[in-house]
């Protein structure tokens, strides 16, 4: 399965990486690597996650982030956003519209 990551999701990953790097040296890189591994797992598990705000939502395994994606067809997944779950749900909804 092909996974397409939009620039909005890459921007979210970059912001998360910067935030966690300020918490401790190397933590930002660990964040990026683990969340990217979660995104890679969509090749196997895309479509099994519950839908929220019109997107499938996969929870990251090690950080409080959610990966919002849509299945274009059985062979293509598009990742739209990677958002921090510690924000108000209205802010999340606004980011997805």
Q: What Rg is obtained from the alpha carbons, in whole angstroms?
A: 13 Å
Please provide the ordered H/E string of secondary-structure elements: EHHHEEEEH
Number of helices: 4
The CATH C-level class name: Alpha Beta
Average pLDDT reading: 95
Give, in spatial order, the strands making up the sheet with the most strands.
1-5-4-3-2
The helix-and-strand class reads alpha+beta
Determine the strand fraction and express it as a percent band.
Answer: 25-35%
Task: Summarize, please.
The chain has 97 residues and is an alpha+beta fold. 44% of the residues lie in helices and 30% in strands.
Features:
97 residues; YaeB-like fold; 5-stranded mixed sheet; 44% helix
Q: Can you describe this structure?
A:
This protein has 97 residues and is α+β, with helices and mostly antiparallel strands. The protein has one domain (2-96): RelE-like (YaeB-like fold, 2-Layer Sandwich). Strands 1-5-4-3-2 form a five-stranded mixed β-sheet. Helix content is 44%, strand content 30%.
